[in-house]
Amino acid sequence: MAARRSPLRGGVADVCAELVSFPQLLTHPNLRVDVVLCAEDHVRGPEPIVRRGRRRDPGQRRLSAVLDTVTVVQPSDLLALLPAALAEPFTTRDVATAMKLPAVLARQVVYCLRESGVLAAAGRAGRAPAYARVA
After folding, report:
1. Which of 24, 46, 124, 130 has the most other CB atoms within 10 Å of its CB?
2. Phi and psi for 4 in degrees, rounded to 5?
3. From residue 27, how far is each of 1, 52, 79, 118 by CA, in Å?
4. In this structure, are residues 117 and 134 in contact, taking their beta carbons and an 8 Å threshold?
């Protein structure tokens, strides 16, 4: 039986979903965030355990490979995630299409970059707020 591949694909930009809680902390000189991108195997047992109407998967997760490690020391390290071909000023929709991200995650990326001081508001593009990189 062949292994079923998960449709979930993570990336470094997914860390911004967790950094939304404290984006100003990225400017602290003693903070370093290491993002480790991993591949894992999920080995399942023959049949899930059902107790009190709840299904519990007795499987195990095993680390199969470490794909990449990205270190974020300064907010400019996160700014490097934005494509260089992104024309300024840009909206969160432009970021979502350029990085091939869902709109919610693109908004979280832009929020983290704006609150850490590497992006600034640059007016509006229609009804959407526009942003530009800070030199």
Report:
1. 130
2. -90, 125
3. 49, 48, 13, 10
4. yes
32-58 pLDDT per residue, tens:
989 999 988 887 766 666 777 777 666
Using alpha carbons, list the distances in angstroms from residue 44 to 4, 8, 9, 64. 11, 18, 20, 15
Give the whole-angstrom CA distance, residue 10 versus residue 83. 17
- For residues 56-78, average pLDDT: 85
> Mind listing the pLDDT tens digit for each residue in 3-22?
677 777 788 888 888 888 88
Q: How many whole angstroms separate alpha carbon 22 and alpha carbon 18? A: 8
Distance CA 112, CA 100 (A): 18
CA distances from residue 17 to 2, 23, 41, 105, 119 in whole angstroms, order as listed: 33, 10, 24, 7, 17
Q: Give me 35's structure tokens.
A: 């993002």
